[in-house]
Amino acid sequence: MTKPINLALQGGGSHGALAWGVLDRLLEDETLTIAEVSGTSAGAMNAVVLADGWQRGGREGARVALRTFWERVSRAAVYSPIQRSPLDKLLGRYSLDYSPGYLLFEGISRMFSPYQLNPLRLNPLRDLLLDVVDFANVNACRDVVIHVTATHVRTGRARVFSRGEVTCDAVMASACLPQLFPAVTIDGEEYWDGGFSANPAIMPLVRSPASPDIVIVQINPVVRCNPPRTAREILNRVNEISFNTALIKELRTIAVMQDLAKERGGAGEGGRDTYLHLIHADAEVQDLAASSKLNAEWAYLELLFERGRGWADRWLSAHRDSIGQRSSFDLEDFFADPPGV
């Protein structure tokens, strides 16, 4: 008998290949079935590719589709002007911090908006996604329900696109970094990256009747071992904190709901418990530079993929028996004050 799980996939550019590795390992395990997926940005792309592949050919179809998608992303990146510097290549570093193309683009993007730099609103990733994913399959898939989150620009609120609403525009909105691309317009309203408001949205999974288990695949570091000192390190840390804030707020809300349910002697939302799980390894993301989120070289994506598979493999070994029984992620411990506070 298989155990259904719901997945929450964070965004993070090419670091989404970490989640690809996690998904590949979970799909390989025939004791599990994926019921619903909530994704933001790269997590949304992983989600729709998975659902399309599942609709075409089950779990193996999903694995093939995910590999094909990331291969296509890597091939498209070959033509990008943003490439590693010769020194980084020599030293085996995947950071773009010293890339002439990256530094030039970073400087220009602080002076000019994407509306000035890209008035035609061209985005090669959109064409790639339309070529790889059949969104009719995504919305028709009954085995895997998809939720995609984008941020409504005028209000700053999250909008979750679910079955029947999951389009290429919704996914591109979910991945729309405002420094890089003009806002995506849907139903007359403009949207930016979902990471600003929900990275990813957890509440659709809390309300899901498909499974009490929510497995969060977190690819952005919550904790940094060393405080930032350079201007770039400070900017990167600010971005990491802002993109984790929405997730932390939702987890805190769930923690409050669970505490209230315990006090009342009942279950959580929907009359049942919610079991939380986290697939993440803070130690293994400390060396990932923020700039490398724009690096889609195949060797780098493969490295991240294998790292993600390792995360999932270790989590399954340690917590497989928790699925359907209890949480393996301790919210009280997560929200405990750090030493010295």
Features:
single chain, 341 residues, alpha/beta, 8-stranded mixed sheet, 13% strand
Please tell me about this protein's structure:
With 341 residues, this protein is α/β, with parallel strands linked by helices. It has twelve helices and eight strands. Strands 1, 2, 3, 4, 5, 6, 7 and 8 form an eight-stranded mixed sheet that branches. Helix 1 (16-28) crosses helix 2, helix 1 packs across helix 11 and helix 2 packs across helix 6 (124-132). The radius of gyration is 19 Å and the shape is globular.
Rg from C-alpha positions?
Answer: 19 Å
Structural class: alpha/beta
Give the low-pLDDT segments. none
Largest sheet: 8 strands, mixed
> How many angstroms does the end-to-end distance come to?
46 Å
Order of helices and strands: EHEHHHHHHEEHEEHEHEHH
Q: Bin the helical content.
A: 40-55%
In terms of quaternary structure, the protein is single chain
Mean pLDDT: 90
Quick one: how many beta strands? Answer: 8
Shape, principal axes of CA atoms: globular
The number of helical elements comes to 12
Which SSEs are present, and which pair or pack?
Layout: E1 3-9, H1 16-28, E2 32-39, H2 42-77, H3 86-91, H4 100-109, H5 114-117, H6 124-132, H7 135-140, E3 145-152, E4 158-161, H8 168-174, E5 184-186, E6 189-193, H9 203-206, E7 213-217, H10 231-263, E8 275-279, H11 298-319, H12 331-334
Parallel strand pairs: 1-2, 1-7, 2-3, 7-8
Antiparallel strand pairs: 3-4, 3-6, 5-6
In short:
This protein is α/β, with parallel strands linked by helices. Helix content is 45%, strand content 13%. The chain has helices at 16-28, 42-77, 86-91, 100-109, 114-117, 124-132, 135-140, 168-174, 203-206, 231-263, 298-319, 331-334; strands at 3-9, 32-39, 145-152, 158-161, 184-186, 189-193, 213-217, 275-279.
